[in-house]
From TrEMBL:
Keyword ATP-binding included in the entry's annotation: yes
Region (Disordered): 252-272
EC number per UniProt: 2.7.13.3
Key words, A-Z: ATP-binding, Kinase, Membrane, Nucleotide-binding, Phosphoprotein, Transferase, Transmembrane, Transmembrane helix
Reaction(s) this enzyme catalyzes, per UniProt: ATP + protein L-histidine = ADP + protein N-phospho-L-histidine
Full protein name: histidine kinase
Principal EC category: transferase
Domain Signal transduction histidine kinase HWE region: 347-425
Chain ranges passing through the membrane: 299-322
Pfam family, one: HWE_HK
Domain spans labelled CHASE: 68-252
């Protein structure tokens, strides 16, 4: 026992160490997998965002390139471009034409705006205050046309955008650099409108040294930069270029709001930079799940499973070692069981031969040992009729079994009206029904000499019961002929003795005995209930009798 205890302790220590190593390895692998998956998802998102930005910058370049020698004072400059810009993308908020006008061109521009039907054609400051022309030292950037035209946008043309805090610096930079430039984030359409970015592309006519105006496209930041799948591994924010500590985030509806990062806020998982309008934009990514905590939980589960397996192995090892002698006895029992199984298989191989032998024995023994040819003929017809009757009953039930009481009907055995039958309702198998039917006929056919009625009480009783539960249940049958003695009862025939003492008990796997008491003749049969009902035979018969399903 001491040696066994030392071995179990060693196994427990080894299992504990291996469980710890497995948990540590799983922790590292989970962290690595989560990081790789998150990095790949972020790279895909940043690549898609950059593709969207490149497409929209290309749209601005194409639109500006379509202007060859524009008349900057016209109010319908976007008319030739409407079909072109919609062929590229339709997710811009407003596309506009901003003309650079000299002071002497403002009156002509105002007349053009009035003729175009805009609601406020007056040339004015961006905040709708009157324009002081005397303060203008050079060309003014005037909004002359836009798309789409609706009740909300038709009031914007005529505004001078030079001093607008966001648009003005953007236009100045685009004019200086001669290429598309994006503005800082700003509300679109109105002060409380969606936050977006305006992209301005300078239009330089052939032979000119400076731009004649600008084609601009404004986009909402949410769909452009911050779109994200609800099932993704991360959330994304845009670093506000106006304040390094601020971020712009979009909610579930795509509305963008600003927030200020605090010292207690979680650190970003990664940062990516995209380029748009000659401007670098920083996308900040935050993991939605805590990879470290999840890795720790997974490692803890692996460790607990390892310790549990270690405990189970130790317990099993001790149990096996402690019960070595019992296992040896169980092996011997198994060998005996296999021998009995072989005997049962041999029994099944001869079952068909036994059935034919019973039929042959019915005919030969009935005729051979009959002292009177009429009596022999009557017994032979009765026995064959008993077998025919049970076959009829089985056919009616599709060979699923027969109610035991049905074997005592008048058509099955003689003197059925004189027999008192009692016992629970039992459906016996086809094989058991054939043996019991011959058995009951043989008992009833030899009881006629001893029958004598006293009052209204029958003098033959047939009763059965089931003792035990489940697989240990036993079928017990008792036949008793009252007021009968060995002297008055007709002796059993040679075939009857074989049937009573050997054929019926062996068919049911049980035992039988018959004897005379002082006032009766008794026959008892005991058999396992599982051989009487034989569910395996019934299931097999049910499968064979099931109709074949037609092919679809």
């Amino acid at each position: 026992m001491l040696r066994l205890g030392v071995i179990i302790i060693v196994i427990a220590l080894v299992g504990t160490v291996l469980s710890g190593l497995a948990a540590y390895r799983v922790h590292d692998q989970e962290l690595a997998i989560d990081r790789i998956a998150l990095a790949r998802a972020i790279d895909v998102h940043a690549s898609l965002v950059q593709d969207r930005l490149t497409e929209r910058e290309l749209l601005a370049r194409v639109a500006s390139g379509l202007f060859r020698a524009p008349s900057v004072i016209k109010a319908n400059m976007l008319e030739p471009l409407r079909s072109s810009i919609y062929a590229f993308k339709t997710d811009f908020v407003v596309a506009s034409w901003i003309a650079r006008l000299k002071s002497d061109e403002l009156s002509v521009a105002q007349a053009e705006l009035r003729q175009a039907g805009f609601s406020n054609p007056t040339i004015r400051n961006y905040d709708d205050t009157p324009l002081d022309k005397g303060m203008a030292s050079g060309p003014l950037d005037v909004l002359m046309d836009l798309e789409p035209r609706n009740a909300e946008t038709s009031k914007f043309p005529g505004a001078v955008l030079d001093r607008q805090p966001i648009i003005g610096p953007m236009l100045a930079r685009a004019m200086a650099e001669g290429k598309p430039v994006a503005s800082d984030p700003t509300p679109l359409l109105r002060a409380d409108g969606p936050i977006g970015i305006v992209l301005a592309a300078p239009v330089v006519p052939q032979g000119a040294t400076g731009p004649a105006g600008f084609v601009t496209f404004s986009y909402e930041i949410g769909p452009l930069l911050l779109t994200n799948d609800d099932l993704s591994l991360f959330s994304v924010a845009l670093k506000d270029p106006r304040n390094a500590s601020d971020e712009l985030v979009a909610n579930d509806q795509g509305a963008v709001t600003g927030r200020t990062r605090g010292p207690d806020d979680p650190a970003p998982s990664s940062t990516r930079t995209v380029s748009f309008g000659n401007h670098d934009w920083s996308l900040i990514y935050y993991a939605k799940s805590n990879a470290v905590r999840r890795a720790q939980q997974t490692a803890a589960i692996v460790g607990v499973i390892g310790l549990a397996l270690t405990g189970i192995i130790c317990g099993l090892f001790g149990f096996v070692a402690y019960n070595n002698l019992r296992l040896s006895r169980e092996i011997q029992v198994r060998i005996g069981f296999e021998r009995r199984l072989t005997a049962v298989i041999d029994e099944l191989n001869h079952r068909v031969k036994n059935i034919l032998a019973v039929i042959q024995s019915i005919v030969t023994r009935t005729l051979r040992h009959g002292s009177d040819i009429d009596v022999a003929r009557e017994l032979l017809i009765g026995r064959i009729h008993a077998m025919s009757n049970v076959v009829t009953l089985l056919s009616e039930s599709q060979w699923q079994g027969v109610q035991l009481r049905g074997l005592f009907e008048a058509r099955a055995i003689p003197h059925a009206e004189r027999i008192a039958v009692s016992g629970p309702d039992i459906t016996v198998s086809a094989r058991a029904a054939q043996s019991l039917s011959l058995l009951f006929f043989e008992l009833a056919s030899h009881s006629d000499e001893g029958l004598s009625l006293v009052g209204k009480h029958p003098h033959i009783t047939a009763k059965w019961e089931v003792a035990g539960d489940d697989s240990a249940a036993v079928f017990q049958f008792r036949w008793e002929e009252l007021n009968t003695s060995e002297a008055t009862r007709r002796p059993d025939s040679d075939f009857g003795l074989i049937l009573l003492d050997r054929v019926a008990p062996e068919a049911l796997g049980g035992t039988s005995k018959r004897y005379f008491t002082e006032a009766s003749y008794v026959y008892e049969l005991t058999a396992p209930m599982e051989t009487v009902i034989d569910m395996t035979e019934r299931d097999r018969t049910e499968q064979l009798s099931a109709p074949v399903k037609p092919p679809r």
